[in-house]
Amino acid sequence: ASIMSAASPQKRVVPMSPYELLNVRHDVCPIELRKRYLHLCRIVHPDKNKSSSASPDEPSLENEDSLDSSSSLEPRESQSHRSADSSASSSSASSSSMGFIALQEAYAAINRDIDMRNNTAAVVRNKQDMQRKKDYDDGNERHLPPSARDAVNANANAHHAMAKPAAMAQELKEHANALFAKGDAVGAVRVYADAIAWDPGEPTLFANRCLALLQLGQFELAVADARRAVALRPRWAKAHHRLGQALARTGALTEAAGELRTALSLDPDFKPATVALQDVERRRGEAACRCTLRGHADAVYEVAYEPTSTRRIASASLDGTARVWDTASGTPVCVLVGHEDKVTGVAWRRGGEWLATASVDRTARVWHVRAQLPLASAATLRASAVLEGHKGRVTRALWTSDGEQICTSSTDKTARIWRVAVDGEGGGAKVALLHRLEGHKGLIPCLSISPDDRFVATASADGKCRVWTINDGQMAFELNAVPTNPDPEKQKSGNGAAVNLCAFLPQKNLLATCQIHAEQDSATVFVWDVDGKICPGRHVDGTLSSWRTLPLRAGGRVLSLASSLDSENDVLLSVGGSAGDMTTFDLSTAAAAWACKGAHEVPRVPGQAANHAVAAVEALAYSKGGEFLASGGVDGAVRVWDAEDGRVVCAFGGCGDKSGAVKTIAWDGDTCLASGGVDGVVRVYSIV
């Protein structure tokens, strides 16, 4: 900008930069610039001489670093030749008007320089200008003459019209999107870069360029762009999806899975993230899978590691066989044949080498699996003993801890206790029925033996759970599993309720039972003190009142139970349900230590209701040291959680298809686990 001297119009004009004109430094901040501009406006504005008097609040000119209109706004040559005659006063108004216009132009130019230097986004600039206008309205503007206020507003509007980085970025983004749609990823990356130069605070530009970089195979650059998009908008599902995609291409599958789960937590209907997560978990499972054991022709319903060996694992299948595998070589050791129907359970005897199986053919069988069996080819074994007598399918067959007895349960409403004498040398076994446990009015889907071999508990569809003494086969307690309703009119007699699970907690002589309520599609978990050590005096007329009632908030049935000890030696009880929810309770307080809603839920397709069957958690198991909890779901995934805080440590599989549903999980120590499922495959994973 330049100003012609009013006193010497013929003199050559000396150009001055906007910074010289306003007498400010090049690194001036917007606030100081605005103060300087307002002060100079009060000095040189043409309406100033028309004002009757200065405002008492107006700063004194003497306090302004010796800056006045003649020394700052006129050319330097004009200052030395300025006329002192009376004609100067007649041209004063014209000079002030020209000086004010120069101030406006200089102020706008410096503001544009500040915006370009700081890469300020248009949105941020607009907010600053709105605040600036508010400041004028609140007090600063009153010191300006009327036409000066109009000039300030007009200058701000002109600045908005000229500075449109967001609009330029949007136009370039649309051009880049068109190039990418045509297959020109290189051109799209170049144009996205131009758009980012205009508006570096827009996350969609980085997310879109990330996709183009992925197509070009520049995975590390794509990860950097995706991380920038997440940083700019942390709660944007698409940004986390892009980061998950990019990380997966670099091989960081664990971190990729975490980002994709975050995307789905922000937008459960985001189907691309669902598909990407399923693919990542499949790849993680393949990478972490130590071996895949194939051979069963139908679903695997139970797996169990041999107690004395980390190499051998047994599996029970609906194809009518059980198998023993060598996990080191990934080959079958032997095939146990002889059952005439589905095999639903398998259990090792203490010390290994002996197995018990339960079958739909109404029998349980005992097998001798010698440690020295050849590994080159699978041997076919016949049962050493058959436990016959049940009139319905055998649901469970478990060894006592001393290995001398087997307890079985059946759909014929009875349970039985058998004595088993094994011959380790000859491989034979002799069995004898000791006790028939009768009294239930419904089938018995589950039983559990106490850690000290004193009791066996039976869960029944009649809504009752009974505890029997193993030595004499007598009922010790009948658990009052029907919760008391405070409203007598709504108190139920137990009709429509069934106890589908029971489990002794090995850490203490506590018993957990699960009662399902078919009419309400809900369940209740109770914990009982069988010994009476925690709650003495609870035994009344052969019944036992619950010590803990656990508040399950999710609907559906409880399908799995598991327990362990935490770092403070308190019992943790984990519950998995048909609605895909999983809760871990601290039994010292009966409060939930942590919970996960939809732990194995396959995200629903947009527009469709969630399918609870697909979400079910059917298997739970704690590692030997209690540090980890593994869960298996109908989504086909196996997830490993930190037992105390519920953090996902790792996840395997997860095709989202019922054909891969996980039915059983078993641990070998704290670093290796095996799973079996509907596809008939046993998989062994390492979490190290």
Explain this structure.
- With 688 residues, this protein is α+β, with helices and mostly antiparallel strands.
- It is 30% helix and 29% strand.
- It is built from 16 helices and 35 strands.
- It has a six-stranded mixed β-sheet with strand order 15-16-17-18-23-22, with no helix packed on it. A five-stranded mixed β-sheet has the order 2-3-4-5-9, with no helix packed on it.
- α9 (165-181) runs antiparallel to α10 (185-198).
- The model is unreliable at 1-13, 48-94, 159-163, 483-494, 536-542 and 605-613 (pLDDT under 50).
Q: Give the end-to-end Cα distance, rounded to a whole number of Å.
A: 71 Å
Average residue-wise pLDDT? 78
Number of helices: 16
Estimate the helix proportion, in percent: 25-40%
- Gyration radius (Cα, Å) is 40 Å
- The overall strand count is 35
Shape: elongated
- Structural class, judged by helices and strands? alpha+beta
Numbering strands along the chain, what is their spatial order in the largest sheet?
15-16-17-18-23-22
Which consecutive residue ranges, at least 5 long each, have pLDDT under 50?
1-13, 48-94, 159-163, 483-494, 536-542, 605-613
Beta fraction: 25-35%
Describe the sheet with the most strands. 6 strands, mixed
